[in-house]
Every structure is written in structure tokens, then in C-alpha cells.
Amino acid sequence: MAYVGHTPPGWLGNLSADQETKLQQMWNIVLVLLDAVSLGAPEQPIENQTGEAGKPAAALTRTDTLASANGTNAFTAHLAQTLKETGLTTNEIKSLKDVLHDTTAEELRAGLLSTAKNDNPDALLLRFLRARKFDVGKSFNMMLRSMLWRIKQVRVDEKVLLTTELDALRETKDKSKSHEAKEAEGFLSQMRMGKCYQHGHDKQGRPVGVVRVKLHKPSAQSTEAINRFILHVLESTRLLLVPPVDTVTIVFDLTGFSLSNMEYPPVKFIIECFQDNYPESLGNLLIHNAPWIFSGIWKIIKGWMDPVIVSKVHFTNSVKDLGNFIDVDKIPKELGGKEDWAYKYVEPVEGENALMEDTAARDVLQAERLKIGEDLLRETSKWIKAGGEHNKEDVKALQSKRDDLIEQLRVNYWKMDPYTRGRNALDRTNVIQAGGKVDFYPSEVVAPVEELKKLDIEQVEREEVKDPIYTPDLSDDFPASQCERVFSTVMTQHIENGVLSAEQRLQTYKSEDDAEQR
């Protein structure tokens, strides 16, 4: 579904001159932090462009960046001076120095690309700018802490994306590690019951998440399992944001809610995630069918929320109320709507994450991503410099180059995705598709395997076989439908990423035919 409505002020595509200047100023600090000069970025001073008595921003010089270039602390005197000019206090700057004490510029470059994922980097910076009312210093402070939370504290890539649902299923079966098995079961049980699911769009084209609060039983899972589930859902939901849509609508369904379902720590964790680490990601928060006992709870929860978040909260008591935000024919019958759809968890299957074992292909794509990212930093530095010189033609040309590099980053992310992220229920039901396409109403056929056969068999004699093909272990009780899903999904991704030769593809098809017959 396409985005409906006008792009709001402060979003990419609708920036005032002052907001664009603030975006450039934010990028300037990022360039200093990431030691862009060592990558060949311009060393000339960059004008502040505040519209006030414009004082020059700190020049991008090599003097203070040698430490980070040599792989030591990313915090430099140059960065401190740049932050001081944004209005950050001495204590705020010292605090940032402390959190950067064991972090290098190289780590932060990779961290920025990891944080951006499939997002437009400009849109990512604008999230933090809007969250701090375009105060550049405070916005940078917030973004840096969020990056460090992802790459140092929570380690989202390793702990959330690489630790897959299939891994959890395997852990539940390993009785030699009882604690790990219990934690994995606690995580998976929340997926299976559908405590939270994503389905459909609201009237503005935002993906909709539904939290069924009555299914939560305090102490049924550990804090670790609950937080893992929350982060898993948040990261999965990010993949559903297709530009220009960059916010979600969440329905907290309190139908059947009682005090026995209430647990404050998970609620507080969700609020902190949205406010500190996924800012400006919430479009609407619909609290549906709240009983009278919730009024006292709401007073407590509201106190934890930023006023901006509170302004997005709406109480709904009927399907008519929900219909103000979501078309009634897109509201599941469970919520009183007309859509004949119900959540059902599709279990992981062996082989669905086969590409994650291909570390060579992953490393090639990651190196490509880092190269594109470095090119973007160089062009961004030139873009800011041209803006400081009020050279409109150069600004336009450089923005075009940046747009091209940003698109390359997006394409690269989706090529790399199957090598760095475990498949989830949205992948298995074909909601998330190759290239980042999202379809909440996909056909039952996962991939056009027969068409791929026709295109590839002709090339078998002309191509050289280089690597053995991965073939999942197919036991007699392995369902044919799951065989098809594993083969078509995994091998289509291999083909799209240029990993398989034609003969390997033919071998894949033959294996698939055998599986279907079995």
C-alpha cells in the first residue's frame, strides 16, 4: 500500500531551509566523529550557516584525527570543539567522551551503517533531529548514544538478528542446557501465541502492529526472554517501513485485560526503546477497549512518556473508533473488523538460514557496503561545503550523487539481508520479500521456481561450476510444502545475489523435484 497524504514538515522531502541547514550541521559532526578526512573528505572549513552571525564550524583537518585513524579513541579535541560550537555543555561533552572511551572511528562507521540498515541515512538523522526539536547538539548526543546502545550494550546485530528463531527452536530441544532451553522456549512461546503481531496498514499506509495484552502472564517468561521478544518485534517491524512511510501504528488491545496481565518493566522497556533508540518511529498508539481499572495504570505509564509520544495516543472503544485510523475491511474480525484473517505462527524449518553460513559471500557484500558508506561520507562532506559556499548548482549535483549512493546502500542491504539476518515469521509467510518488498496479502506461491528453471537451464553448458551447492537435509517426514519454501526462498536469494552458477541452479532444481516427489 502506498503512503497516503502529504509529507509532514521536518520529514525528508519537506524540509525548510533552516531544517536542511540543521541536517547538514548534524552531518558535519558525524563526519568529524567518523574521521571522514582519513577517507579523503575535503579539509576546508565548512561554514555554520545558522542564519545568525555565521561563525565557521571546525575545519575538517587531519591534526586531531590521527588517534582514531590509528584505531584508538574516537573522541578527539576536534570533536570536542565541534560539539562545543553546537551548544553542548562541558558536562555533556565530558559524558560523551566517557561513553566513547573504548570506541574507534572505524567501529562507528560500521555502527552507523548497521543502525541505518535499510533506512535512508538522511531520514535516520532526521529522526533524531525531530526528536530533539532540531537542536543539533542534543540530536547528535541522542543519536550517538543510540548507536552505542545498538553496537556495544545490546549488540543488536549479534544478539537479535544473528540469533534466529530457528536457533531458539534448536535450543528448546537441547536438554543438556536447561537454562538456555527454558529461555528459548520463553522467547518462542510469545511468538507462537501471537502476543504481538504485525499485519496490514492503516489509512496513512503505516504498517500496523497489534499487542494482545491479555496473553501476557507476568513471570511466565524471564525478563531476558521478554526483552529479546520485544527487540525481535521492533527490528522486524523496521523492515516493514517502505519509504516514504517511516512510522508505524500500534494497537494495544486491552480486550479481556485484568490486573493479572499487568507488568510494568516490559511496558517501561518498550517506551524507552521508542523514545531513546527508535525515535520518531511511532505514528499512532491506539489503546483499544481499555477497562476502567486501566485508568490508574495509565496515569503511571503516561508519566514515563515524552509529551510527543503522549500526543500520539488515542483511546478507542469500538471498531468504529478504530475505523478512524484503519479501514474496517482491513481490521481483523478479532478486533471487530471485517477482515477474515487470524494470526498463526509458522514454525522455523531447517535450511531456511543456509545463506548465513556463506561467510565469504557475506564478507564481500559487507565490504561493498562499507565502500559505499565511505563514498557517501566523502560526497556528503562536499555537499556541506558547497552549501556553505551557497553554490546551488554544486549542491544540486552533489545531492544527486548522494541520492544515488543512498539507493546503492538500500539495494546492498537487501542483498546482504539473508546472509546477516535469520528468517522470521514475516519471511516465512512471504510478507517480507526479496529486495525489501512488503506484501501483507501475498499469494501462496513463494517464488516462481519453474520460471527460474527455464531461464537457467540453457546456460548450464556455458558456465563453470565453482562451489558445491548447499542442500538441506530432507528426512522422510519433512513436509513437501516446507521443502518448497526452503528451496525457493534460499536459492532465489542465492541467484539474485549472483552466488550460484547455472549448473548449481540446475542441481538445486533437481533436488527440489526429488523433494516434491518425496
From TrEMBL:
Stored Gene3D superfamilies: CRAL-TRIO lipid binding domain (3.40.525.10)
CDD domains: SEC14
Domain CRAL-TRIO: 180-343
Superkingdom of the source species: Eukaryota
Coiled coil: none
InterPro entries: CRAL-TRIO_dom, CRAL-TRIO_dom_sf, CRAL/TRIO_N_dom, CRAL/TRIO_N_dom_sf, PITP/CRAL-TRIO
SMART domains membership: CRAL_TRIO_N, SEC14
PANTHER family (alphabetical): CRAL_TRIO DOMAIN PROTEIN (AFU_ORTHOLOGUE AFUA_4G13930)-RELATED, PHOSPHATIDYLINOSITOL TRANSFER PROTEIN CSR1-RELATED
Protein name: CRAL-TRIO domain-containing protein
